[in-house]
Design goal:
With 255 residues, the chain is mostly helical. Helix content is 80%, strand content 0%. Helix 4 packs antiparallel against helix 5 and helix 5 runs antiparallel to helix 6.
Length: 255
């Protein structure tokens, strides 16, 4: 389902919830007359609003931080791949060509296989196997001269960074806020919409329209928060741009 359709349906749901709540809770005599203390109403409304803003802000800030970290780590991995590719250039054939070919294969697998799998909530075993093949070929590559041994050691160190960033990505793809936080956010949003209806502020059509605007804003905020919860799922998913850059660097190093 398109992100725009989902956002529209969520917003429409908030409007519908506000309308039904207003009709059900705004019929009482006290609600219709509005006989409430102004200070008490301000206090209750402020608490409800603060609760919703606190939960939403906490989740958006945490999700955005996770998204930024996940994106930065793709560039760390791409940089480690290019450093490995450069280092193995000092090795002799056929080890050099074998390792470089496998590095290209792994990078292509991450772009075409891994990222679609990440959108489904898991990593790609094919990409893991491709990376293991790179490590095996690099360990088996001969390095008789001291400068070749140094280059091989540098390549192995950079490859270890690739493994670390992949392990971090595997953890990030399964990360998300606990279910209880989402329940609290929905409850806080529901209370925020229902509160004006309880006071009788929806007894007139103009007030009802205003309350529907509140319902739309609350529903949109919850929908946006949900879309930000997973770093590798649309619409704000991390993209494999870093690995396209790595492939470009491979071609440059090949001359």
């Amino acid at each position: 389902m398109s992100m725009y359709v989902l956002s529209f349906l969520a917003t429409l749901g908030g409007v519908l919830f506000a309308f039904v709540t207003a009709k059900l809770l705004g019929r009482g005599q006290r609600a219709a007359s509005g006989e409430f203390s102004g200070q008490a109403l301000s206090l209750i409304g402020g608490v409800l609003l603060s609760s919703f803003v606190l939960l939403t802000g906490f989740q958006v800030a945490g999700s955005w931080s996770t998204l930024s970290t996940a994106r930065a780590r793709t560039y760390d991995e791409a940089r480690a791949l290019t450093d490995t590719y450069w280092a193995v250039g000092s090795l002799s054939d056929p080890g050099r060509n074998t390792v470089r070919t496998l590095l290209k294969r792994y990078t292509g697998d991450v772009k075409s296989v891994e990222f679609p799998a990440l959108a489904q909530g898991h990593t790609s075993m094919e990409a893991w196997h491709a990376l293991d093949s790179v490590r095996a070929a690099l360990n088996a590559a001969p390095a008789p001269r001291p400068e070749q041994q140094a280059a091989k050691s540098a390549a192995q160190s950079n490859l270890a960074t690739v493994y670390q960033t992949r392990a971090d990505r595997a953890a990030e793809v399964r990360a998300g806020f606990p279910r209880i936080v989402w329940v609290a956010l929905l409850v806080a949003g529901g209370f925020l919409i229902a509160f004006p209806a309880v006071l009788g502020l929806a007894s007139h059509p103009r007030n009802l329209v205003g309350l529907c605007f509140v319902g739309a804003a609350v529903a949109f905020a919850i929908c946006l928060t949900a879309q930000l919860d997973h770093a590798f799922q649309p619409p704000f998913a991390v993209r494999p741009t870093a690995f396209s850059f790595a492939e470009t660097r491979f071609r440059q190093m090949d001359g």
